[in-house]
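Retry 2 of 3 after timeout on previous attempt. Resubmitting structure tokens to design endpoint.
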């Protein structure tokens, strides 16, 4: 009986931990997506074109910062959504922080540490 209780508590704790991570990270990204939904993506379009990509790729920000985080929060297609979420962040690091890849901030951590998380 003790082994069953231990196993059950371990499974529940892992699930709760994953839920907390999913909801917190995806919710933080939703704030960015909401900002772009309200204020537009003109700045993103400029960065995309400046990097030599077609302008229509800038609209992918709506998928990466609104659609995929919502899917992650509700737990639907979580692994696929997380992959594209991460791809969105790699693209964002490349576009917005390309010159800061190896730069350290005032506190000693990388300037891009929030995007890396």
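Retry 2 succeeded. Sequence:
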């Amino acid at each position: 009986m003790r082994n069953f209780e231990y196993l059950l508590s371990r499974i529940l704790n892992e699930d709760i931990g994953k839920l907390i991570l999913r909801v917190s990270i995806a919710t933080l990204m939703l704030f960015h997506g909401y900002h772009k939904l309200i204020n537009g993506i003109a700045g993103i379009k400029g960065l995309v074109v400046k990097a030599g990509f077609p302008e229509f790729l800038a609209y992918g920000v709506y998928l990466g910062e609104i659609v995929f985080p919502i899917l992650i929060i509700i737990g639907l297609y979580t692994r696929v959504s997380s992959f594209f979420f991460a791809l969105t962040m790699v693209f964002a690091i490349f576009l917005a922080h390309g010159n800061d890849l190896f730069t350290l901030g005032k506190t000693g951590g990388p300037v891009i540490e929030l995007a890396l998380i």
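Attempt log closed. The helical segments are 2-39, 42-50, 60-74, 78-97, 113-116.
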